[in-house]
Amino acid sequence: MAVTGPAELLATWEAGLALQDGGRALLLHRAARPEAGTDALLSVPAGERAADLFALRHALFGARMQVKLACADPECGAAMEFELDAAELGAVRPRVPEEDLRVAEGGWSVVFRLPSVVDLGEVASAAADAADARRLLGARCVLTAVRDGRTATEAECAWLPEAVLKRFAEAAEEADPGAEVTLNIACPECGATTPAELDIATYLWTELDAWARDVLLDVHLLASAYGWSEPEILALSPLRRRYYLELCADV
């Protein structure tokens, strides 16, 4: 896991300001694995990216992650806060079987590959609804398909039965449990359960954005007080930088 310095992190933040969610997720993944090319990063399973981003979050901001959400019960709506462990979540990585994902259902025998980051992104932008998303994802991930003892046609693979797609989704979830982090939080006020999905890329970007703005404010204050350049200020440790800021406040 690469741990970049403040100058590199600020450059990553600056580059991400002009991007949308998918571009920011790729940017953060590149920061986590700078040795990997774009094609390689996009071809990994979603759980692999999530694990890398949790590990990056751990390296940058520590393991403790605070999550806030409101109770889903409209009559309650209480604010809830709890903690997650980035180190623990970063250890959850895909377990792909040697023979990929095999599904046998209703006369069909299909071998799928595990969906990649680019698969999920393309399907999300093209699908009309959840059922269409399952169909498109299944069609993208089919490696081989046999129907009633014969090789299925390309058209048949594009419209696999719902029962086959359901089995594929179950096999993919079992092989890549970290692809989606779903939380079910019991409200301490009313007891209602609130489901929520944690998108680590969005969570980490929000933290990076807040960090970058705080650091730039530090740079502004110290440059104004001492005339130092940005590289000189960023070269200071956070502790020394905070001490100089306290001295400025005392003047």
From TrEMBL:
Pfam families on file: T4_baseplate (PF12322)
Protein name: Uncharacterized protein
Species name: Streptomyces olivaceiscleroticus
Domain of life (superkingdom): Bacteria
Taxonomic placement: Bacteria, Bacillati, Actinomycetota, Actinomycetes, Kitasatosporales
